[in-house]
Amino acid sequence: MKDTLDQASGRITTQQYWEAGWRDAALPGPLDPVHGSYFSRLLHRCFKEALARQGTGNRRFIEIGCGTSHWLPYFCNEFGFTVSGIDYSPTGCANSREILRRAGCAGDIREGDMFAPPPQWLSHFDVVGSFGLVEHFKHTAAAVAACATYLRPGGCMITLVPTMRGLPGLAYRLARRAVYDTHVPLGIETLAQAHRQAGLEVASCRYLLGLPGVLGEFDTDEKPLSVRGMIKRISRGYWWLEERGLGVPPNRYTSPYALCIATKPVA
Questions:
Q1: Is 61 left (phi over 0), alpha (psi -120 to 50) or beta?
Q2: The CATH number of the domain where 45 resides is what?
Q3: Domain for residue 141, yes or no?
Q4: Which residues does residue 137 pair with via DSSP β-bridges, in sequence order?
Q5: pLDDT digits (tens, 9 = 90+) for 70-79
Q6: How are beta strands 257-263 and 151-162 bridged, if at all?
Q7: pLDDT tens digits, 52-66
Q8: Residue 107 lies in a domain
């Protein structure tokens, strides 16, 4: 199964790519679902809705591709999950352990290939999450299927991806082409179909945000601080409008993210 899914997935990035990215990365602070950004609050509402039917007491959560991630302490602190993660970047794993330590959370972080889960992790987790992972494979369904091997029957799969389509995709092609080339553009139809092809039942698949990701893509370190500050202020202003229903509705042309919630059928 490991070799079949791995060969079918069409990896776009390498371990060396992620090592280089995580080596000098600043560790992210805690995600604040109450006072944080509009996007953080929006995701928190989506996750609460998705997990309401699952329950969270004495439940197990794993993030696939957990390098330098703030999601594990979030799911530990907000939902009470016992958390685990797997990533093939040694630096990414070390960063994740430090992020958990700073948050006061216990967690089992393992360095390894997502296509070769430890035997005890097969069909083990109540919730499997990936946040910017499956779009780095040419064949999305194979990547989703690999994630699903960790999920118990009846469990919930959470998949968040940048769309890289429409205006967000254009922004990346113009401003950060090297980053764009490591992604497969995905709409909600394609993302949902990949989950179905992986044997999962799709509960919902939706676009998130109307526009602000487009503004953010041009906020690179090469720009003067004054320009970067202006971009951040514009983005925050737009978020304020969108939260009040005055922005662009999420759609296939301008939304920067897509979120799929699916379940693994009970045999």
A1: beta
A2: 3.40.50.150
A3: yes
A4: 11
A5: 999 999 999 9
A6: antiparallel
A7: 877 656 899 999 999
A8: yes
